[in-house]
Task: structure prediction
Amino acid sequence: MESAGFPEEENELKTVRIVGSELVENYTVYVIEVMVGDHQWTVKHRYSDFHDLHEKLTTDKKIDKNLLPPKKMIGKNSKSLVERRQKELEVYLQTLLVKFPVAAPKVLSCFLHFHLYEINGITATLAEELFHKGERLLVAGEVFLLRPLQLYAITQQLRLAKPTCANGDAKADLGHILDFTCRLKYLKIPGTRGTVGTSNIQEHILPFDLQVFKSLLQIEISHCDSQQIRGLPLLKHSLATMSVHYTASSMKDILVPEASEFAQWEAEGTTSDSPVSAIIPTWKTLTTLDMSHNQISCIDESVKLIPKVEFLDLSHNELTLVENLQHLYNLIHLDLSYNNLAVLEGVHTKLGNIKTLNLAGNQLEGLSGLSKLYSLVNLDLSNNKLAQMDEIKNIGSLPCLEKLSLSNNPLSIIPDYRTKVLAQFWDRASEVYLDGIATTEKELDTVEVLKAIQKAKEAKDRMANNDKKISEDARPSTAGSKSNCSSFAARPSSPSLSASASSSQEIICTNTALVSNEISTRVDSTITQRCSNIQDPFCEETLQIKKPSIASSLLHENSSEQQFSCCYCAEDRSLWTDREITPVLPFSCMSYTTSNLDFTAQLSGLIGKALWEKNRKESKIDVDVGAVKESGSQSSGDGYFEMGLGDGESGSGCTAASDVMVEASEDVDDEIIRINRVFWLYCIQINKGIRQSPSCLVLTDSLLAMFQIHEELTASMQNFTDGLETDLIMPYTEIEAIVFDIPETCLSLKLKTTDIRWYFLSDSHSLKEISSIVSRFTSVLNSNSVLTNGNASQQDFVGYLLASQELEEGDTVVKGAFPAHLLDRTVVEFFNQHTQSIDADSVKNINDCPYSDMFSHMWQPETEKLLFCVPCVLFLTLRYLYVIKVDFAALARNSEHHKEASSFVKLTRIPLASVLLHPKQGCVSSSTLPAHRFSDGHVLELMTGYKFVTAVFALPHDKFLFLRVFSHLRSSLQDVKTVAFFRVKDCLGKTSGHQLTMSHKTMKTSSPQGCSRPRLALSLLYPSDPLTQRLSDENHCPLHLSVCPSLQFLAGLKGVDLVEFFYNSIAEVENEELKHILWSSVVFYRSPDVEMTACIMLSTKALYFVLDDSASQLGDETLVWNWKPSDHEEIDFLISYLFTMKLNDLQSVNVGLFDQYFRVVGSSADQIISCLTRDSYGTHRFIQQLMTVLSLLEKLPSPEPLEKDFYTEFGNKSTGKMENYELVHSSRVKFIYPSEEEIGDLTYVVAEKMGEPGNQHSFNILLYVLAFQVQHCASTEPQSKHLLQPKTLILTSSDIFLFDEDYISYPLPDFAKEPPQRDKYRLADARRIRDLDRVLMGYQTYPQALTFVFDDLQSPDVLCNLTMDHFASELSSLENKRTNCGNDREVQWCIFVPGADSREKLISLLARQWEVLCSRELPVELTG
Result:
């Protein structure tokens, strides 16, 4: 097909024909070709589609029923039938087009794909879409996507002289599009190359006009033709950000398209000596211009029109020169990467105020042009042709340069490349981040040496030049020579000048840092905390409505409509949305307070009307007492008005505010009821049953009134009082008691004339104020509760309930109290599926389910089918989550009798380490449906290690307060805690028809809704590709480490997925960056017998230990740690264990002998962990990365005396001596290395086991290595066939020893009060080297293991100190070591050494010693 554009005539001829058919499976598909002028496309439909179309047309448009060919059941795929039907269907479609010549019905338009390729259909579809959700998109401020095809259709429609609504459907009116485009602020136009779909339209050559957009702030255009864009200059008055990719061949095409019309033009506000034909207005508001990925060959004079631009991106173009940028006075960020720049001359004259410059991927060989960019902070020169180290001198004197990238240049392969580059910065070397890595202390020491050498060399050269000059001037006077030398020595040296210059620039550097922070914030603003993401849209919606209708806002919040939006995850189908079973106080109520005069006037009128009705009832003589009793009235002369439990329908109806005010003023003696305070709370009323509802408590000068928020709200309400139902009005004199049953959380109210009790749940401030005001207006003193006394605190209350349990410090310090309905996940699924079939047996089963003490009690009235959930109270402490379940009915019945608290209250204590947010609730919805708003504002999915809990918070904002406190407490825990890994990357991975694309440039967290995940304001260069690749290479789990499914999943992550996983599931501190990963075995000080696998993640703020499932042995909460997913639940996430150590808590690092392991020590016994890498390289690499990261922290003054001379210190350090073998880092962390005393102790132990402790100097330890002894098991499972027992192997000149070593207890921590119960080294076995018969190598026993075969002729001196108990305990293992080949006098050691270098050393040293002792080569046999 030939390419074509759209027809521009109004009534272009439309033709349709069926050009063929295809057999798909067992049915026939007809190929339809549609043509509108030169525009054509193909559509495929089967006969059933035609039949459905005909059914709709006959119903809506009265089409003849016999027009469509009839169905055929037999032989429907025969060739003759298909050919005949093809002709008949073609006639059918042609008839329909003749019947609807101007505008086809919507159903026919969709059938023939007019909505995709035809002007009327495209605009009608877009108009209808904007009619439904255009307003919401504008309010949300989202980027709206319009394709060039759609813009072209809009442009052509505006050119045609025709009505804006051709098909008669008001929803498809073109005016909806124009109204939307006039107010749109963020637009994206993504074009394509080639034809669109099945049509012959080439979208990138379609002209379109942008003049319909009047308020654009940001626009992005890609894959279009700049010559076809019209109206772009009309956006100058508002546009702030513009991005153009794969579209332009010059900057002039975008910035000044009028240049093609005028030969000579000049920018507005500039002067020119030559005559001009046009003055072009400038882009007054444009601050960011991104024209990367185009074909721009030069920076032309059009930049004069963008004087306000601060961020300019011209990367991935064809630039060869940097020119004309002197007109951009405000430019601070310039990206010229991946162009053809080879020379930079006089750049400072064009980039005077530049702070960030990216020149990566060019052809640069010299840097002389950058020597005067004194404001430059960030410079990227990677992937160029810089080969000479002298070129770095040109940028070494830049006073503000902080970040420099020189990777992938020829000079980067020079030995000691980093130190030689850093030496060019003299005294500022410690401030420079080279290639994204901070300068280490070791590098700074080397830099100081290089600086000293350079000083001496320069002085020598100057002296030589001076002597040469004197000899050439024929003045060989010795005295003169000396005077010259002395005068030269008296001059200030260049380093001092450099230092002063550097210090004088501190203010400039500070300002630069502020600007760079603004840049980072601007770019990374999408990575924010989820709490603010959820709350802000609601607040915006509330503030934008002027004088809101109170009833309508309540209606918006309380509607029980159950719908689901496509933007929600598939898991939303199991979310709890039934507000009748779990009533909550809606958010909208909180905006109506005493300061709202209209609201208080309506309340005053409502109270007056209720009092008037009460007085009218009391004045009637012919009242039937029986009827009164039947209606539920408590008393007719008690002095207060109350609605009973059954008065919901017969109570006082609420009328409009005007009617209420009129009746109140006429019939209540013109008494003005002054509202003092209004409180919104959750009320539980106990009489013969339980009734609970969100309520409004009103306190006046003499009355207490309570209104229930009506559950049945209608859209016809005129004011807020239509949504309230009077529940209680009484004078203060009728109050008998007001008591805090749960301190600061639950307040109970008792009247003198009734047995009804009211329990109020609200925030502590409101409840205390209610109690204070009521006590002030009455003479009744607050009495003590059945549970606590009147002055008890929440901490005392928890301590009282936990009197029989052992308490630790901080266990009862309550950080937050939250009323909430707690539902079992199975109950949620049951109610969502059986909303109409709830019976008494179902309620009993729910209340008697396992772990029922954790969940809210379900109650069902005898006369109603409606089920209620009684809320619990959640207390958050430093280490526990307490679930307090109160039996309010029993508490009300026994309010006068003090019984044990256990009769009314059940308390469940859950370790906070085992509580986590459900990993599937990471999608934050922008839906306005009531069901979604209810879930977003009140529902939170929790996991308590072994159980799924749905928490419905009764009070507004409590969900977000709980999340904030919970996140803070969990991040501050020093215990091993559970974490959840979501195995499905995409949030909507299970929802058919919806895909969520995740950008690799922005770290999007999939944290649960509202969860306070760390704020990630990362730098523009993080994560760099080299860092991502290095982390991927480091994330390799050694084969000998046993891994659980969660660690196996972690080990399989690579690249950006690994970095995203870290921020989504692990990171707990703000602004941290992942720097290093190490897989190792770890041992905790609290559990020295448990060795487990861990993935150690080092970030810039913390050390994270992701632990194997064996970490469950570290806790004493067996029910919680033994987490098993239920059989009926679909699990697509993994549970793992995490231990976090903040780097600020790190005190010291003990490095083991020969770098075989290291131990990190924090502030307590819980923060002492030994990492058994069993690999000297892995240990060394980790210590190096840890020192680098610690250097990024706030630096403290050096612990070394300042008066010491550097050269003296350097000389001392070069001897290898270190005071106390401790290196005190600038962050005050001590790195403690093995001392000579420790080596001596080990030598003594070996000599003692040999029976010659006095001759320890004759024993020479050749090798110390951590290894495994492989034991063979009878298991049939391949992974369980071998048991690895950790051992310490020591090789001396004559013997081999296997020790059981205590890696965690030594050296003793500072807080240790007594020595450990076991020795550091315990001998397990020993053999003489001369008894070694042969060595087996290969994979037969265990991959890469070494099998030492000894003759069982053990010398008594080696085993002299082994007791009989040792032989008794080791008897079975020794029998297993014996070979089965018939020789009973052979003993085998199967040893696996994880470290490859250690394994090679062991073999070579053992072979050498064996040859010395036996005078022949060691027999080595290869197996398997």
Remarks:
- The chain has a mean pLDDT of 75.
- The CA atoms of residues 697 and 943 lie 35 Å apart.
